[in-house]
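Many introductory courses stop at the sequence. We go one step further.
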Amino acid sequence: MRKTLLLFIFSVSISCFSQNREILYNFTSVPQSLLSNPGSDVKYNWFIGVPLLSGISANVGSSGFSAYDLFANNGVDFNTKLRNVVFSSSRNDKLVINEQVELFSGGFKIGDWQKSAYISSGMYQELDVLTYMPKDPAILALDGNKDYLGKVFNFGDLSMKGEMLSVFHVGYHKNISDKLIIGVRGKIYSSVFNVSSTQNSGYFYTIPSTNSIYEQVINSNILVNTSGFLNYTRNYTGNAKSDITKKTLFGGNLGLGFDAGLTYYFQKNIQFTASIIDVGFIKHAKDIENYSLKGTYNYMGLTPDFLSGSSTNIYQAFKKAIPLDTLHNKYTTWRPVKFNSSVQYSFGDGRNSECSCSGNEMKYKNSVGAQLFAMTTPRMPLMALTAYYRRQIFESLEMKATYTVDSFSVKNIGLGLSTTIGKVNFYMMADNLLEFRDVSKANSMSFQLGLNVFFPDKNTPD
């Protein structure tokens, strides 16, 4: 029973967030960098992403434990490993999973090089999961309340928000002057599946009274909202593949959002960037089901044993005091807002007579910089600080190396490569490279790759 309850607690503690893409940010030889800053200093007349191959990324991160801690073949019983993980973690530790596939993308420049604007658009599918450690409910499920008389178990540890969605976007990018570039991007969200429960509260405690009598109080204020699942739980006889495709193509619950960003050159070789991403919401009005556990139950007596069958009346009183209600109320979710900012210093003159660069930054072979990332969550903001080095190795090959400190690791070294052969651009990126020796012990891993076709801008003066 306790194992089942523990698995339930972990399964319902799901939240939805995108991860930091520190290698891709401001890596402007890759068109997909516009997704993290619509005001990036792009360098090509137009590009077309290869459908389903232009942007593929996945990452996983855990701030409290690694897969090795739970599944290592070291002779330690799994229950012992699970206890060690629970008791060594805090309620703010989290497990993050993110996957994104670009369905199509493209962009083109309008105007001359001095007053150029850029239009880009595309569509991508995304899945985000973040599981917070439900510290108090997990301890209660593992040990019960026998050894915790007087302890107040906090049900507010259960906080979740998870989503699979598609995003259609159109961006506009403008060179205001030689120093300033700005960009905005509008988005239409189509939610395929959603689970949301972020305002939970409640508590459970047991205190001794007289003559071996105990007083137990349970207060619950838990609401779980879901959308997109209802049809599949009611003797579904349709075509799931067709239904999911329809929801991806604007047939799901819809929402709106926007991105904004800028690039500013203090000098030709000193650059500042900033962006805010995913300021938006989704209105859930289709295929809705809400689950509510609200009420207070006060029991005075010996600890009841529901499994023995001798506490039927007590169990019925509990269900009456804290009923599980199924509702169908509309609700709204807000996208997690991401903020990026960077400062970059470039050096080493890399111009030649065949230079195909635009703007200021790619006149230099080398760049060093720092980037700040922040993202809203139901609890504390997720933060990351990155130092990086960029190098134009050849005219057709660029490299970016990063070192990142965040909630998951203090030794995250990443590497990205972007190469252009003819009109074909290929990029590949991965971080936490030191952990590739044994990925089971890694606290975070990510990769990104893609394939684009583009024409560089050849109208830039020397």
